[in-house]
């Protein structure tokens, strides 16, 4: 019964009229982990989720849950036969049922009596609230109930559609952490759809970056951040400084000086990726540094992001972790130095 | 289906005859008078309905709850009962006064049908998001400009829907115009039919259908495409603040009291005056009991059948918005504007020619009710289904439940209140229906409405009174249910 399954999507296509929502999605989700599908609004991530759940029919391609093909040419299993549970945005609890009624909805009578309802409620930190009605719960609690409801029948796969969207920042982190713990404790395979890169990086074991109906990269969070597949991913996941460069023999000539790049990368005209935390800011220009002028500062408490203009006019940003003991003023002249390895990408082709 | 029969009969009558009847002064006169009546009554209802809805929901008027109920109660007074009451009370003012004609009918119909505007508009005013009004005020617009520019526009769909119902209601009303001797299409159709000139009756019916279609099309084209009136974004709405009336309280109170007095007081007075005399007639109690039984039985049957048909259509309209469901929704408005006499007529033919076993049975009458009142029930079901998001059904299916189980355990419980409201409305209107009942009731069967009609026709006001009183009393129950659902009562207090 309770076996968890991997998810495989191959060549998935889906169009709404002339608008292509999915144009060839390939995705592998291993059993028992949390995979985040990360992308901007309108990239097709919610359509992908609805196709996996069975609410939307694919135009082409196939979907396998475990070994079983649930969607493909000539096959479309009904949602209730897929054992794929969904946690929609805003929770979508059944307003006429109590919390226990909601959580027990997908269970047989025998399962309901076996204590599974209390078990999953405890898992999401809501033990003892089974008799409440949904409207008596806070937004965060409703979201937890929605997760418990999805987990209760031990589905082969749980899909979460931007489940933390409606919650305020503090609550969000807390609910996110608890939900991940609950998913882990139950050993469920989960796919989380989100446009929040912080959420994707912190919750998931694997992040699939999606854009315009395609998966651009699917890798563990650290790898997506450290070696993004292309310059768009680099920009979308985390802060990025992309510098124009001329590359020859493993050396890139950039406005920040000559940097070493991996030999397997492109050569000639290219873009070089520097993360803001790789830029070391020295109080004054010195030998081996590139002079720059501070033009702005975003303070975040634990760190700050400096906006800087290089003398050539190129704009860069640098992250400072110790702002309190090294205050910088707008207009100050400083020196910049790049720490650690950088990556190079082919320049996006100019159009026209 | 009734339209099909209409077409068959008209074609059978021959084109020459059709145009011969159509292009006469009489038809022009009837068209003019029917449209004028509909326009005057709709205008009056919009003014009365929006005004009292605003006073009841958005101001600090004293006794708001009471006025909320009073403004809705005329729904329980059938137009022909009100007409009868005014007619039977006219001699109190001047014994020689004949209360009849165009303006008499306009007055009575306005007082009977303004709840059709009041109820949706007050519900919309209660539900409208005050944030939009606050934004408007903060952008430097004054109270009056905010009211006309934001508040009225937010409730515009409700006003339009209510006005449409009133216009259709007036075009199809038969009882009031017949009793008050105002020549409109419905009365002419009925008279021609009674005189045996069936072809003429049918031709006039087609013109009436055409007029109704024009009204429907006109209403659709005033809706701006793609406009949204619901609040955007998540979060719970807040109830709106109340406008202090100040010195305007007195005229507002006087106005509401006057409207309530005219709409409810006059019928009440007339019924009290004549009821005693009516009950004391020998043998009438058994007659009354039989009529009550007949009314309840036929109305229950009609309401049941209506809901059975309305449920799938309402769900389709709400779940699959598209050209098909729009056409379906609009089509089901059409019979509402056909006079009951036309529906009755076409079902008489249908009964004789096709469904002979049903002819002279209550089932045919129930079918007529279903055709007549389907739009009301469909609207109620569609509204309720719209409030039960499809997302919930999808979640339920993803939890491994089959579509039928999902319908039973999720959809049905959520739309049950809407079904209840639709059933109450259908029952209420079945009780009040007169012309189709007159035509289709099995021989010997009497209902409250038919008894009332027969006595009024021969100017037996006293004998008619108990039937009128009972009709109002029974119809008040579903009316109360409906009013309590709009939220006027729940939030109007305090």
Notes on the protein architecture:
The complex is a heterodimer of chains A (352) and B (494). Chain A has 352 residues and is an alpha+beta fold. Chain A has two domains: 7-231, P-loop containing nucleotide triphosphate hydrolases (Rossmann fold); 242-346, OB fold (Dihydrolipoamide Acetyltransferase, E2P) (Beta Barrel). Chain A is built from nine helices and 21 strands. Chain A has helices at residues 45-53, 99-103, 109-113, 116-123, 139-151, 169-186, 197-203, 221-226, 231-236; strands spanning 7-16, 19-29, 34-38, 60-65, 68-72, 75-76, 84-87, 157-161, 190-194, 206-211, 214-219, 241-248, 251-254, 257-260, 268-274, 279-282, 290-299, 304-310, 315-320, 333-338, 343-346. In chain A, the strands form four sheets. Chain A has a six-stranded mixed beta sheet, sandwiched between helices. Chain A has a five-stranded antiparallel beta sheet with strand order 2-1-4-5-6, with helices on one face. Chain A has a five-stranded antiparallel beta sheet with strand order 14-13-12-15-21. In chain A, strand 10 (206-211) and strand 11 (214-219) form a beta hairpin. The mean pLDDT of chain A is 87. In chain B, helix 1 (2-13) crosses helix 2 (15-22), helix 5 (79-93) crosses helix 6 (102-113) and helix 23 (448-457) packs across helix 24 (461-485). Chain B has one domain: Orthogonal Bundle (MetI-like fold). Chain B starts with a helix and ends with a helix. Classes of the chains: A alpha+beta (352), B mainly alpha (494). The interface between A and B is medium-sized, with 25 and 19 residues.
């Amino acid at each position: 019964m309770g076996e968890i399954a991997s998810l495989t999507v191959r060549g998935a296509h889906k169009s709404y009229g002339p608008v292509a929502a999915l144009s060839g999605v390939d995705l592998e989700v291993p059993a028992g982990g949390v995979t985040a599908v990360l992308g901007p609004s309108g990239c097709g991530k919610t359509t992908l989720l609805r196709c996996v759940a069975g609410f939307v029919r694919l135009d082409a391609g196939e979907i396998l849950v475990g070994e079983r093909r649930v969607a493909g040419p000539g096959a479309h299993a009904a949602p209730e036969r897929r054992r794929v549970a969904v946690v929609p945005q805003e929770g979508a609890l059944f307003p006429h049922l109590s919390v226990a009624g909601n959580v027990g909805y997908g269970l047989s009578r025998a399962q309901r009596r076996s204590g599974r309802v209390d078990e999953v409620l405890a898992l999401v930190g809501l033990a003892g609230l089974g008799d409440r009605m949904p409207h008596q719960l806070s937004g965060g609690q409703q979201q937890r109930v929605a997760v418990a409801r999805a987990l209760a029948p031990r589905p082969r796969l749980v899909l979460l559609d931007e489940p933390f969207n409606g919650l305020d920042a503090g609550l969000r982190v807390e609910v996110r952490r608890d939900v991940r713990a609950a998913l882990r404790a139950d050993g469920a395979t989960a796919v989380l759809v989100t446009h929040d890169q912080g959420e994707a990086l912190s919750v998931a074991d694997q992040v699939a970056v999606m854009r315009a109906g395609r998966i651009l990269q699917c890798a563990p969070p650290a790898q997506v951040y450290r070696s993004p597949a292309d310059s768009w991913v680099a920009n979308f996941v985390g802060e990025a400084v992309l510098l124009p460069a001329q590359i020859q023999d493993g050396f890139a000539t950039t406005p920040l000086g000559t940097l070493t790049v991996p030999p397997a990368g492109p050569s000639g005209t290219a873009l070089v990726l520097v993360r803001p935390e790789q830029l070391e800011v020295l109080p004054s220009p010195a030998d081996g540094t590139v002079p720059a002028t501070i033009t702005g500062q975003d303070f975040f408490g634990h760190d700050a992001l400096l906006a800087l203009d290089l003398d050539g006019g190129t704009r860069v940003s640098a992250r400072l972790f110790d702002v309190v003991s090294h205050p910088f003023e707008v207009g100050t002249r400083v020196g910049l130095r790049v720490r650690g390895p950088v990556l190079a990408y082919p320049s996006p082709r100019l159009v026209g | 289906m009734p339209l099909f029969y209409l077409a068959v009969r008209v074609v059978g009558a021959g084109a020459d005859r059709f145009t011969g009847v159509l292009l006469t002064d009489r038809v022009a006169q009837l068209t003019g008078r029917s449209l004028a009546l509909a326009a005057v009554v709709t205008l009056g209802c919009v003014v009365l309905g929006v005004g009292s809805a605003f006073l009841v929901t958005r101001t600090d008027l004293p006794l708001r709850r009471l006025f909320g109920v009073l403004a809705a109660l005329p729904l329980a007074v059938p137009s022909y009962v009100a007409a009868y009451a005014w007619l039977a009370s006219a001699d109190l003012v001047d014994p020689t006064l004949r209360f009849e004609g165009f303006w008499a009918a306009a007055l009575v119909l306005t007082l009977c049908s303004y709840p059709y505007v009041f109820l949706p508009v007050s519900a919309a005013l209660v539900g409208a998001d005050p944030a939009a009004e606050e934004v408007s005020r903060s952008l430097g617009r004054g109270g009056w400009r905010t009211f006309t520019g934001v508040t009225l526009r937010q409730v515009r769909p409700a006003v339009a829907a209510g006005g449409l119902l009133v216009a259709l209601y007036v075009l199809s009303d038969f009882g009031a115009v017949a009793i008050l001797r105002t020549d409109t299409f419905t009365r002419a159709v009925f008279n021609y039919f009674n005189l045996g000139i069936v072809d003429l009756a049918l031709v006039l019916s087609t013109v009436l259908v055409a007029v109704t279609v024009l009204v429907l099309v006109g209403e659709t084209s005033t809706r701006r495409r793609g406009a949204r009136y619901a609040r955007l974004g998540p979060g719970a709405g807040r109830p709106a603040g109340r406008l202090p009336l100040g010195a305007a309280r007195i005229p507002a109170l006087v106005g509401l009291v006057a409207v309530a007095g005219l709409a409810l007081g006059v019928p009440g007075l007339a019924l009290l005056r004549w009821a005693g005399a009516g009950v004391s007639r020998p043998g009438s109690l058994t007659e009354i009991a039989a009529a009550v039984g007949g009314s309840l039985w036929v109305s229950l049957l009609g309401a049941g059948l209506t809901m059975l048909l309305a449920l799938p259509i309402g769900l389709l309209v709400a779940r699959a918005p598209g050209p098909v469901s729009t056409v379906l929704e609009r089509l089901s408005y059409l019979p509402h504007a056909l006079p009951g006499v036309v529906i009755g007529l076409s079902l008489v033919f249908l009964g004789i020619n096709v469904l002979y076993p049903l002819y002279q049975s209550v089932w045919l009458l129930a079918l007529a009710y279903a055709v007549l009142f389907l739009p009301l029930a469909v609207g109620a079901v569609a509204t309720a289904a719209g409030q039960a998001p499809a997302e919930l059904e999808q979640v339920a299916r993803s939890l491994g439940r089959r579509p039928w189980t999902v319908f039973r355990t999720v959809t049905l419980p959520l739309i049950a209140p809407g079904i209840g409201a639709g059933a109450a409305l259908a029952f209420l209107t079945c009780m009040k229906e007169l012309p189709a009942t007159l035509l289709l009731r099995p021989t010997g069967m009497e209902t409250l409405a038919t008894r009332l009609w027969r006595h009024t026709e021969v100017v037996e006001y006293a004998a008619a009174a108990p039937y009128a009183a009972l009709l109002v009393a029974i119809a008040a129950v579903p009316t109360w249910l409906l009013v309590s659902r709009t939220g006027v009562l729940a939030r109007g207090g305090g």
